[in-house]
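Input sequence (235 aa), recorded before submission:
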Amino acid sequence: MTRLQGSNPNRTMLVVGTLLAALLIGLALVAVRGKPAPGAGLTADFNLANVPYAGREDAPVNVVVIEDFKCPVCKTFEETIAPELTSKYVQTGKAKLYTVVWPFLAEARRLPTDDSRLAAQAARCVYDHGGNEAFGSFKSILFRAQGDEGTVWATKTRLRELAGNVEGLDTSKFATCLNSDATAAYVDAEKKVVEDARVDHTPTVFVNGREVINARGQSSYLLADVSKAIEDASN
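Predicted structure, token format:
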């Protein structure tokens, strides 16, 4: 083994060990900075003034679901859990169910076309020209038509076809909106809001600004956990 001339092996090991310990401490601080305490969940103050929702305007509890239309787990949530929440809390006036779209999957998968973003733009066009009811209808249609998350399926052509199934929607205005990327700036701003809230997966559910977590302190979208959060917020 070759050493630098005049070096002390014991001193060298001490210096290296000290530097390594400092590095590990630094990495640990970076890893936890900005994250909530274990089991606490995220908190977020979403501006919901112009966000699509289902339910009565005066419902006291706000449930915010962060979704990507390409997300297969979001599809499962919408088809199995959202209907239960709707019948138990939305239709009874206990809660409003907001949808905040976070288009990240196509980018994360490095797909050649960001169809997560295109689907989000299309949904916003539907909302702008049809309101909450049209948005809810289109959301259901999008999830039913969902393709594999690793492929580009939400093209503008396909989105225009799907929008044709939304009752009462002016498809001409919708097409102009989608083709001109009129809602792109809104979609990008909403994406930034979600990322600033440190959300890192879909679906993520917030009740009155607090992330839903399970008994183990983990993020949860399951019916029992969301229901408990709504009940707690109602009391």
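Checked by second reader. Residues 145 and 158 are 10 Å apart (CA to CA).
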